[in-house]
UniProtKB/TrEMBL annotation:
InterPro entries reported in the protein's UniProt record: ATPase_P-typ_cyto_dom_N, ATPase_P-typ_P_site, ATPase_P-typ_TM_dom_sf, ATPase_P-typ_transduc_dom_A_sf, ATPase_P-type_domA, Cation_Transport_ATPase, HAD-like_sf, HAD_sf
Subcellular location: Cell membrane
Protein's UniProt keywords contain Translocase: yes
Keyword Transmembrane helix: yes
Organism for this UniProt entry: Chamaesiphon minutus (strain ATCC 27169 / PCC 6605)
Keyword field: ATP-binding, Cell membrane, Ion transport, Magnesium, Membrane, Metal-binding, Nucleotide-binding, Translocase, Transmembrane, Transmembrane helix, Transport
UniProt similarity note: Belongs to the cation transport ATPase (P-type) (TC 3.A.3) family. Type IB subfamily.
Descriptive protein name: Copper/silver-translocating P-type ATPase
Transmembrane residue ranges: 21-38, 44-63, 75-94, 100-121, 255-276, 282-306, 595-612
Length: 640
């Protein structure tokens, strides 16, 4: 059993992390208690409970509304809803019809829940930046007079030299001055294969060193490194307010101003213009505040979008907020990252050409590559296992970074690697193999040569394979009316064009760094306005944040991509993108229906109030009834 102090600290932590959600939950409980006890002889208790609900649920919205009024001299819906709720409470106390107080509590509760959803959406930015920061190294091996010294990355200066050992993160951008290795640049460029780096080549912070030690000279300050620029780009893109959000904010404030102005006029002019009594005038003005409060109008959107979000979740599509569910149906252009999105992101053996013995070719290659940690080697081993090949373990294995691997298999020399490395240790080199190797390389495949006992056995083609559903998904998206579909990648132009042609992509942008991907998205937005970006890596984060809708792959996607994106395809199934767009368009139709109904019903209630044919109970009934109908209509998507 936990101690009181432990329980208290746990509650304090929860209150600090989720204050809005807890306030909304407490408000809901208090409103229900006040409602159920109202007619049970506990009037004083009920009123006290409902007053507490008003304070707890409306405190934050009241502060925000008054803050907006004080700083910007603007009225917003937050303040209008509080005024409407207090008006309902005052009218209930005046006429001793206390259910109006419950109605005001419901108004406050609805807005409290909206505040919780908004707070969740805003917290994504902080989590995204934290995920990016986790990719950077805090320390580096600085070389001073030939000796290693561990220092903070922040202490490094231009011209310093650092040592990066095998398997370590590169601490900051720089140029190799000694050594060679293969670096995994997927977190930065999205390249599917490790890239060979040697003296004079540039390396990026956050990339992963392979099996060779590197000495790097710093030619850019750590705060100007590529990964730090990615972080700043994500921050900038996520804090930009889209035009649609600006329109909604202007509409809310304009609506609030109009209702307040009309309420004041209705509460003061009728005795002079229409001969109404002051009691009747105040009564009509309070009814006006209740029936004109935008509950049905505000409920026109959220229930429909929330049910759409729930529908998407059942089908493996995570929408992080309702605005993005709405936005994805308006997309006119889509940019796809290549590696891990249109392709599987994992090298696989796609073709084999042997001179005489295909079985021996895979057996020898797997025997050597089984001792390697290279992704290409893993692909060869996996292919041999899949075909049921067995091999004898290699001995005296030696890896040559960037060239290949050699060793002894059954007492004879075996060599696997690049053409020049293998051919230098073999007596034969059939012209047919050389031609086939050249053809595969032109198709963007990596060619591995295999020799055994001084004779070349054959060649193996390794490539990042296209997802099985990619071509079909692209066709279906075009049928939905998407104007343009392009591919963005850090890979070379030739590989990218081959894949684009295979699956029906309209355009290709290759050899891109994260900044370049971001610029492509901006160019597409200038032409097509609403643009979606589909990606999975750290290098995609700025483009995902800039896009009208960022979509991440849920399984292969990096933590930063998942946090930055607005939509996540949980099972990495591209065909679900078509369903997401159709779901968005249907929810958009329901929202439009709700808006028309809500505005029409508010207009009817207002006309009835002005003609004197409306009582407060009827006004509340009409107001709440229209809200319930709008919510039920919005929940239709839950049935699918």
């Amino acid at each position: 059993m936990s101690s009181p102090s432990l329980s208290r600290s746990r509650w304090q932590a929860l209150l600090k992390e989720y204050p809005d959600a807890i306030a909304a939950g407490v408000c809901a409980v208090l409103v229900l208690i006040g409602w159920f006890t109202l007619d049970r002889g506990w009037l004083g208790f009920s009123l006290l409970i409902l007053a507490a609900a008003y304070v707890i649920g409306g405190y934050q919205n009241t502060l925000e509304g008054l803050g907006t009024l004080w700083r910007e001299k603007e009225l917003d819906v937050d303040l209008l809803m509080i005024v409407a709720a207090l008006g309902a409470a005052a009218l209930g106390l005046w006429r001793k019809e206390y259910y109006f107080i419950v109605d005001g509590g419901m108004l406050i509760l609805i807005f409290a829940i909206s505040g919780v959803l908004e707070g969740y959406a805003m917290s994504r930015t902080e989590r995204s930046i934290q995920g990016l920061m986790s990719l950077t190294s805090d320390t580096a091996r600085k070389l001073v007079d030939g000796q290693e010294r561990m220092v903070s990355v922040a202490e490094l200066q231009l011209g310093d030299r650092v040592l990066v050992k095998p398997g370590e993160l590169v601490p900051t951008d720089g140029t190799i001055v000694e050594g060679s290795s293969e670096l995994n640049q997927a977190p930065i460029t999205g390249e599917s294969m490790p890239v060979e780096k040697t003296v004079g080549d540039e390396v990026f912070a956050g990339t992963i060193n392979g099996n060779g030690a590197l000495k790097i000279q710093i030619d850019r300050s750590p705060e100007s490194s590529l990964i730090q620029r990615v972080i700043r780009l994500v921050e900038q893109a996520q804090t930009e307010t889209p035009p649609s959000q600006q329109f909604i904010e202007r509409f809310e404030r304009g609506y609030a101003k109009a209702i307040v102005l009309l309420g004041i006029l209705l509460g003061t002019l009728p005795p002079f213009l229409l001969g109404w009594t002051w009691e009747d005038t105040v009564y009509r003005a309070l009814i006006f505040l209740v029936v004109a409060s935008p509950c049905a109008l505000m409920a026109a959107t959220m229930p429909a979008l929330l049910s759409g979000i729930a529908n998407g979740a059942r089908h493996g599509i995570l929408f992080k907020n309702g605005a993005q569910l709405e936005a994805i149906g308006q997309v006119r252009a889509i940019a796809f990252d290549k590696t891990g999105t249109l392709t599987t992101g994992k090298p696989q053996v796609v073709q084999v050409m042997a001179i005489e013995h295909p079985d021996k070719l895979l057996q020898v290659a797997a025997a050597l590559e089984n001792m390697s940690e290279h992704p290409i080697g893993a692909a060869i081993v996996h292919a041999a296992q899949k075909q049921g090949r067995e091999w004898i373990e290699a001995v005296n294995v030696r890896s040559e970074p960037g060239r290949g691997i050699s060793g002894k298999v059954e007492g004879k020399i075996a060599v696997v690697g690049k053409a020049a490395f293998v051919q230098a240790q073999a007596a034969n080199c059939p012209e047919s193999l050389a031609k086939q190797s050249q053809k595969w390389e032109q198709e963007g495949k990596t060619v591995v040569w295999v020799a055994y006992d001084n004779n070349i056995l054959g060649i193996i083609a390794v490539a990042d394979t296209v997802r099985a559903t990619a071509a079909r998904s692209i066709r279906h998206l075009k049928r939905l009316g998407i104007d343009r579909i392009v591919m963005l990648t850090g890979d070379n132009q030739r590989t990218a064009e081959n894949i684009a042609q295979e699956i029906g992509i309209d355009g290709v942008y290759a050899e891109l760094l994260p900044e370049a991907k971001l610029e492509v998205i901006r160019q597409l937005q200038q032409q097509y306005q609403s643009v979606a970006m589909v990606g999975d890596g750290i290098n995609d984060a700025p483009a995902l944040a800039q896009a009208s809708v960022g979509i991440a792959m849920g399984i292969v996607g990096s933590d930063v991509a998942l946090e930055t994106a607005d939509v996540v395809l949980m099972a990495d199934r591209l065909e679900k993108l078509e369903y997401a767009i159709r779901l968005s368009r249907r929810s958009g139709q329901i929202v439009k229906q709700n808006i028309v109904f809500a505005l029409s019903f508010i207009l009817i209630l207002l006309v009835a109030n002005f003609t004197g044919n409306m009582t407060l109970p009827l006004g509340v009934l009409g107001h709440e009834g229209s809200t319930v109908l709008v919510i039920l209509n919005g929940l239709r998507l839950l049935k699918d």
